């Protein structure tokens, strides 16, 4: 019962981080001040691996939550044999 809660809370955490990252808007002053970082150019946040990592982690925990809710995470001997 704890695993679905952990997966759900991680999914919500990463989803909120992605939402907040996409909502950031820079003014002209910010664009001039942070021009040497290249913010707002060349793909925006998609050029940073940390942003990609948020998406991958959200997808992973979403799949883990779906797996927990469908009941496929129960391990038995047959699953281990199929894996080998």
In total, how many beta strands? 0
Radius of gyration: 19 Å
Q: Biggest β-sheet, characterized?
A: none
What does the overall shape look like?
elongated
| SS-based class | mainly alpha
Order of helices and strands: HHHH
Count of distinct structural domains? 1
Tally of alpha and pi helices:
4
Helix content: 55-70%
Low-confidence parts, pLDDT < 50 over ≥5 residues?
Answer: none
Termini Cα gap: 28 Å
Describe the structure.
The structure is a single chain. By secondary structure, this protein is mainly alpha-helical. The protein has one domain (2-83). Helix content is 68%, strand content 0%. It has four helices and no strands. The protein has helices at residues 2-23, 28-33, 49-70, 77-83. α1 runs antiparallel to α3. The chain is elongated, with a radius of gyration of 19 Å. It starts with a helix and ends with a helix. The model has no long low-confidence stretch (mean pLDDT 77).
Tell me briefly what this model is.
With 84 residues, the chain is mainly alpha-helical. The protein has four helices and no strands.
Characteristic terms for this protein:
84 residues, mainly alpha
Which helices and strands appear, and what pairs or packs with what?
Layout: H1 2-23, H2 28-33, H3 49-70, H4 77-83
Helix pairs in contact: 1-3
């Amino acid at each position: 019962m704890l695993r679905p809660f952990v997966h759900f809370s991680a999914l919500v955490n990463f989803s909120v981080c992605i939402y907040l990252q996409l909502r950031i808007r820079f003014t002209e002053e910010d664009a001039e001040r942070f021009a040497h970082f290249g913010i707002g150019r060349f793909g925006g946040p998609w050029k940073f691996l940390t942003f990609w990592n948020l998406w991958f982690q959200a997808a992973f925990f979403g799949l883990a939550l779906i797996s927990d809710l469908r009941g496929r995470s129960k391990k038995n001997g047959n699953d281990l044999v199929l894996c080998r």
